[in-house]
Amino acid sequence: METLREEAINVISKMPDSASIDDIMYRLYVIDKVRKGREAIQQGDSISIGELKGQMESW
Fold first, then answer.
1. Of 13, 20, 21, 28, which alpha carbon lies 20 to 30 A from 49's?
2. pLDDT tens digits for 20-51?
3. 3 state SS of 20
């Protein structure tokens, strides 16, 4: 598994030369959120879609 630094370098190196700092920051932000989501799922810190729908209906 890549370290966060290695993953960031890999992602940035694959982006076009015309990528702006905002493009780079957004891509890294999305990668961070996906990584944190996967970690939460592995730790059992998630809910099913049915539970989510139930919560939203009660609002």
1. 28
2. 999 999 999 999 999 999 999 999 999 999 99
3. coil
